[in-house]
Amino acid sequence: MTNYQFPKDFYWGSASSGPQSEGRYENDGKGDNIWDLWYKEQPELYFNTIGPEKTSQAYTHIKEDVALLKATGHNSFRTSIQWSRLIPEGRGAINPAAVKFYNELIDELLANDIEPFINLYHFDMPVVLQKEGGWENRKTIDAYVAYATACFELFGDRVKKWFTHNEPIVPVEGGYLYGFHYPHEVSFKAAVQVGYHEMLASAKAIAAYRALGKIGEIGIILNLTPSYARDENNPSDVKAAQFADGFFNRSFLDPSVLGEYPADLIDDLRSADVLPSYLVEDLEIIKNNTVDLLGINYYQPRRIQARENPHEWSVPMPEDFFETYDMPNKKINPYRGWEIYEKGIYDTLTNIRENYGNIPCYISENGMGVEDESRFIDKQGQINDDYRIEFVSEHLKYVHQAITEGSNVRGYHMWTFIDNWSWLNAYKNRYGFVSLDLENDGKRTIKKSGHWYKKVSENNGFEE
Ligand code: BGP
């Protein structure tokens, strides 16, 4: 029996986001974001045609949901402030109903000793700004910094943990390479420009936070997906894995933590003629505004090999530099199809310790999506998700090992709290500690994993 005890004051919690949990509320002033717009244009793209208005309706369930956070052992919780709720037109007037809602949520969390971790951008570009080019347009950065500043001014007296973005590579991939986010363009050059603008916006928001003299920490949440070469002894595979790591991870990790872009990535992007336009002074801003705290989302690794065949697409793509391969005998989540590789979380934390100054970090997402989880409901209506308990505990063991070896890990947030709506996948994959019954007025029931997590949090660890 091993005792996995975590450091004092460890943050136990889960993560969600405004657009995935709040719901719409037509008369409460929220503007449209790109998910609302895309749903109006092409509802058939959304799984079971369920759009972004059908959520757990967190907007009207503050007390009930905070009580559930308590009942599942949370001492911290991440969500985001929806840009299009707070500032419906993207820039300009603030929506008073939004201020009231976020104030009530934050106050209720604090009254229950639950530390709010607040993220700003979670894939939810206001439509007005998207019509002007969204992150492709440098002017969006000013609108974003104004929104960030409004958040700091309105809520920064109580919120002490801020994040500028969740997974900034995802709008790059989804919106400008692989078609799963609006505006579903395919342009490597636009993709790189979008990523660069997101990064500069992050640094400028950090500068704005510090200029206000607020006492708290500000960071960024990155999905750090370790890239493993098929053959560590094959230089072409290693080079391909290095590109994937550079493009998907270090393009945000390095500027966010070290204040500069990796030289190998710049060389690769230059060779594809996709370097972004920038101003020389931007680089000073990025250098001077690195993060205090890093959130790490980890789901699965990338298995990479060198390209075997020339590419088949008509435009340059990141895949000119690498291809993924299907590793034989890998462990798979049978209910979602993703690889499960628990050691990836340890390798990522070790990389942060060894190469990124052991900056304070926390696991900001990690979780197991399951299709049709209703098949695991027992007679009492509880989902017996032993697979999720195993998933979380196996990852926590590796987090524990990293901490034992000196990693500066401050907490663990599972994705997610109550089953939430997820972009084009809607409710295809359920992730929560708490189930949501869409057929039954959004009824919430704590899953077996939620009860288990409470004990883990109370004991600040577990024995196994
Ligand atoms: C992460 C996002 C979350 C959530 C999660 C699960 O990348 O930060 O917002 O969507 O993935 O995704 P899915 O429901 O598509 O499995």
From TrEMBL:
Molecular function via GO: beta-glucosidase activity
Catalytic-site annotation from UniProt: 365 (nucleophile)
Gene3D superfamilies hit by this protein: Glycosidases (3.20.20.80)
Any GO CC annotation of this UniProt entry: cytosol
UniProt GO BP: carbohydrate catabolic process
Keyword Hydrolase applies: yes
Regions crossing the membrane: none
Family annotation (InterPro entries): GH (IPR017853), Glyco_hydro_1 (IPR001360), Glyco_hydro_1_AS (IPR018120)
Pfam families: Glyco_hydro_1
Keyword entries, A-Z: Glycosidase, Hydrolase
Record-stated family: Belongs to the glycosyl hydrolase 1 family.
PANTHER family: 6-PHOSPHO-BETA-GLUCOSIDASE GMUD (PTHR10353:SF139), GLYCOSYL HYDROLASE (PTHR10353)
Protein name: Glycoside hydrolase family 1 protein
Record organism: Brochothrix thermosphacta (Microbacterium thermosphactum)
Lineage start: Bacteria, Bacillati, Bacillota, Bacilli, Bacillales
